[in-house]
């Protein structure tokens, strides 16, 4: 049996980050879907994550989904095989934002989120 090349493990261990834009939906054959705005591996992935954290953008760790999305081109719509997972994540994030707004309104505190949440 051939041994596995250690370089393969190094490549697999590199972080992957993919940024999506959900408010700039892209027309797709199935309707409107989020589009991929950035893809990074290794240090580029770390930069994408740093920018996200610095701007209070929610981040989800999902290596399988990131691998699928990273195989696409920037500005392309999320592929159909990943759309269900992305939709679930976006739904969860919108729910979190809505909960933050509701809690802030209940306590008369201004939430630190975008005003265009409905």
Automatic annotation (TrEMBL):
Protein name, per record: EscU/YscU/HrcU family type III secretion system export apparatus switch protein
Taxonomic lineage: Bacteria, Pseudomonadati, Pseudomonadota, Alphaproteobacteria, Emcibacterales
GO biological process terms on file: protein secretion
GO cellular component: membrane
Membership in a protein family: Belongs to the type III secretion exporter family.
Gene3D superfamilies hit by this protein: secretion proteins EscU
Pfam short name (any one): Bac_export_2
Origin: domain of life: Bacteria
């Amino acid at each position: 049996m051939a041994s596995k090349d250690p370089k393969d493990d190094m490549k697999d261990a590199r972080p992957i980050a993919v940024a999506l834009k959900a408010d700039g939906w892209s027309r797709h054959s199935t309707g409107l879907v989020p589009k991929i705005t950035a893809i990074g591996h290794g240090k580029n992935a770390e930069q994408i994550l740093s920018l996200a954290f610095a701007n209070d953008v929610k981040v989800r760790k999902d290596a399988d989904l990131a691998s699928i999305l990273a195989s696409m081109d920037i500005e392309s719509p999320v592929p159909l095989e990943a759309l269900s997972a992305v939709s679930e994540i976006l739904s969860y994030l919108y729910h979190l934002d809505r909960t933050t707004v509701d809690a802030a309104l209940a306590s008369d505190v201004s939430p630190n989120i975008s005003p265009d949440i409905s």
